[in-house]
Amino acid sequence: MDENFLLETQTAQVLYHTYAKNVPLFDYHCHLSPQEIYEDKHFKDLAELWLGGDHYKWRLMRANGIEEQFITGQADGYDKFKAWASCMPYAMGNPLYHWSHLELQRYFDIKEVLSEKTADTIWQSANAKINQPDFSARKLIEASNVYALCTTDDPVDTLEYHIKLKEDASFKPKVLPAMRPDKALEITDKDFKDYIERLARITDIEISNFERLCAALKRRIDFFHEVGCRASDHGFTCLPYEDYTDEEIEKIFKKALKGDTLTHKEADQYKTALMVALGGMYKKKNWGMELHIGALRNNNTKSLLNIGINTGFDSVHDSEIASNLSRLLDRLERQDDLPKTVLFTMNPKDNWILASMAGNFQSSEAISKIQFGTAWWMQDHRDGMIDQMRSLANSGLLGRFIGMLTDSRSFLSYPRHEYFRRILCNLIGGWIENGEYADDLEQTGAIIQDICLYNAKRYFEV
């Protein structure tokens, strides 16, 4: 993993080192804590910084037969780190092998290969840096050359720390909220009524019907926009679409508030109606609407009860998505309410569905208004990135792609952007050397810089 890691041709090396390497990055979807950024969190040790909240690593540790106490349990940080190190020799071909070593190199200047044999030396060397006064959340973001990042925020969030960061001139990277109203959509959830009451309190709107719900969400969208939000984010296991009338939606919403059981069709009618309403609100604000489709969550009930959500028990779903996605986008388009939209899939079988669907709804309102989003979650490895970019290149304009994101809770995850950039440059460099694309490195370099930063910057208007 030297300076030409993953760069298989001379052209790829020139494209990466001359054009891609030093461009600031825009991480437009992540799960970092704005409070930890504002408070400039310092970290106890490498285990807290590297393993805390990282369900990617936890899954590999379980696959290696490691007991849960050394993963999410109460074991000492050193013992957790040793357990993680024991996995590395067996992780050949896994992106975590590459990411882990890139992170050790970039943040700690450690070039040793991680294993049980080297764990003690690496633990001591990394912790010596972590314990320095200037090793902190903000410093890591700045050292990673971050132009801007978007966190993931519920409509009922106060955005207290986003506001404080916006007013803090000493910290240059932009930290922006992205609204994720999933809880407002999950009408069959046992906590739905309580959530609606929280939304009512923070907006000072009595939410007694669907119209008032939309009014409350519009008020929060207005507030989020003032704080700097330019994107929404939605997660769907199966993308819903059911035709509805306004009268049906009012009845369904009132049934849910009374605690009555809804049919699957009624739930999907409600979700469709709310997505259509939200889409129109986003369009008026010129936000980007991100749709993350296909994560089958909380598969292991026993572990869910013992450990909780977002702990590494999610996987790829295989539902059909083309028809419902088409109907949702088409309804928004017919109403002139279709916002800029980024389509993500967890399942590579859907790459061509999303890549080709994007082409149905492009317009002059924005360059590549409908984006086929980057390889996401279980696809953000080398093969997944290449498959996604090849699908996009074959069906649309790779040069207008808004590029990579981390989708991470870790302050050390930014080398994923480097990983992506190396793969991007290698892909295009190979096409050039094969005579499949013009050998104009200055023009190509500018396009690569667009993919690394400027396309997303223009798309989200940040």
How would you portray this structure in words?
The chain is an alpha/beta fold. It has 2 domains: 10-42 and 135-460, Alpha-Beta Barrel (TIM Barrel), CATH 3.20.20.140; 43-134, uronate isomerase, domain 2, chain A (Orthogonal Bundle). 50% of the residues lie in helices and 8% in strands. It has helices at 10-20, 34-38, 46-51, 55-63, 77-85, 95-108, 119-130, 137-143, 160-166, 182-185, 192-203, 210-227, 246-258, 264-285, 301-307, 322-334, 351-358, 382-395, 415-433, 441-460, and strands spanning 25-27, 146-150, 174-176, 231-236, 288-293, 295-296, 315-316, 340-345, 370-372. Helix 18 packs across helix 19 (415-433). The model has no long low-confidence stretch (mean pLDDT 97).
Percent helix range: 40-55%
Order of strands side by side in the largest beta sheet?
Answer: 4-5-8-9
Unreliable spans are: none
The tally of helices reads 20
The radius of gyration over CA amounts to: 23 Å
